Structure formats: C-alpha cells, structure tokens
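re: ur question from earlier - yeah i can do the single chain one, its not a big deal. heres the input i used so u can compare w yours
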Amino acid sequence: MRLVLGVDEAGYGPNLGPLVVAVSAWAVDSRLEVLDGLEPFAPEFQAASWTPRSAFVPFGDSKKIYQSGKGLAGLNFALRFFESIFEGKPPQKRPWFELGQLAQEDLSRVESHPWYRCKNPVKGLGRANQVDWNSEASCRFAREKLLKLGVRLIGFRLRVLDEAYFNECVDRLGNKSDVLGHISLELAWKVLGECMDFHSFKGIEIYCDRQGGRKKYAGLISQTYERSHRESQVPFCSVVGESPKTSVYSMRHAGIATSIRFQVHGDSLFPPAAASMVAKWARESLMERFNGYWREVVGPGLKPTAGYAVDAARFARDIEPWITKLAIEKNQWWRRK
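and the output i got, formated as tokens:
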C-alpha cells in the first residue's frame, strides 16, 4: 500500500483575503499511476461546474469547478462526498469539513480579525444544500469507482494564512514564493507523520502543484524536513530531474522510498486536485465572511470582491474611510507581495 499526498493552494495571488494551503492524503492499494491524471476517474468524476442535476461528482482543478456567480454549491457537494468516504484515524469530529477541524492551529488567529468572525457572510447564488436522487446516485457510483481503483481517502489538513500572518511570514522568509514553499512542505511532512502513526506503507509519493518559475527544490525539501523532524537525521535528497514543467526528487523517510514531485498544472493529478478543491472551499468561505463584514460596516451598496489585483484596489478605496475611522493598520488587512 502506498501513501499518496497532494499539495495545492488557493489565494496565492490576491492582495485581500487569506492564503490557504491544503494537503490531501490517500492510501492506494493498486497499481494506479497518479501521473495518468484524472482520466481513470471518469466519467463518475469530472472537473466541471456542478448543479444538483449533474450525474457526476466534481473532482479536479477547483478553478474549473468553482464559479463565483454560482456560489460554493459544487465544492460543498464534493466535500460532502469526501466526508462520506473518509477513513482517517484518529477519528475526527464531524462534520470534519469545518475550519475548526481542518486548520486547528490557525483558527483562533484567523478569527481574531473581525472580518473572519462575520455572522452574515455574503453568499453566492449556489444551492449548496440541494441534493436530488441524481446526486445520490452519482455519489454511489463514485464510491464504487474508487473501490475499483483501490483508492481510499485518509484525510485533509489545511494551513490558513490571514493577511497579517502572511505579511509576517514574508518579512521572515523574504518573499511569498518561499512562504508558500515552506508552509506547503511543512504541512506535508506533518500529514505524513500523522498518517504513518496509524498505517503501514511500502512507498510514499508527494505531488505538489508548482507555482511561479522556481525549478530547484532540493534545499527547501531538506530545510523543511529538518524543521519538521528535529529529532531525526535529515535523509539525503536526490535530484531525479528539474525542468521548466516538473521537478522530481527522491529520498527515504523512515526507511521508505519517498518521491516528491512539483509539477506545473499539478492539479491535473488527483491528489493535488482534491487539495485544490478543499483549499478553494476554505478561502471562498472566508471571503464570504470578509465581504459580509465590510458590507455591514460600509452599507449594502458595497460591491463584494474576490481580492485580486485591480478589484482589490477598488475595494480598498471603497472601505478606506472606515479603515481610517476604525484605525486598522494596513498590514492587518492588505497583503504585501
């Protein structure tokens, strides 16, 4: 049995809202090749926009599933499906797809900001709780497909970096690329350790969606491994290959052969795709709170924002008088690049 981890993020580019990093963990009992992508999961799973009448479970790059005008319906449905197949140990309090379960170490810090405690979030238009017979049948067929593929979900973990903490990490590490790299791998090592406490594996594979132009990760792998395993000797990290699209490394963790792969469009592979979906769900859920808070402060005429570039600047201008009145420092709500 192999342990397969997928790592991806949501919110790497925006100036507003959190950066969320997610890791999905899977046990694979078959010869399924992760590099075959999502094709083995079709047609029961599809990387497409979902409605309650869809005859599939949404699974893939979150950008293909989530559409701002339709709300979180598709991602919510996918997360409910994930919960139905969850086999993690130790048992997690349900529903596990709450930030308090998936990002325990970050929740109190994130909710120290009033815009993430909002009780009246701005909701999308999706009918997140509407499920009909078609949806129930889709879940049944999807579970049968995973059983046939020999794939079992162990669980998910998240890190949520609110704006202030993100800026603090950039100051400490120098740039947001290093922030993402450190947070991603440290979370992966943590999840790996949790999984090995309760399962036995003959191989370990870690797949990461690659951001930016970075091609060399060996130093980062060794550095984060050392920080995460202070009582263990750091194993030698061998470079298998480094190219414009993929960077692949090998090492031995606890005597088990371990591969780490960074790939452009890594969310075309099922482990990072699952992480992408959960990360996107978490970020957009928090952005609903963010927009709800500022609408309560400014008034119902305030147009919500997704937090990116030009629109983030527009939103900042719209709330500036209230920011001044509330004496909120900019580094608390605006992310530096």
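The chain is about 40% helix and 20% strand. not sure if urs matches, ping me
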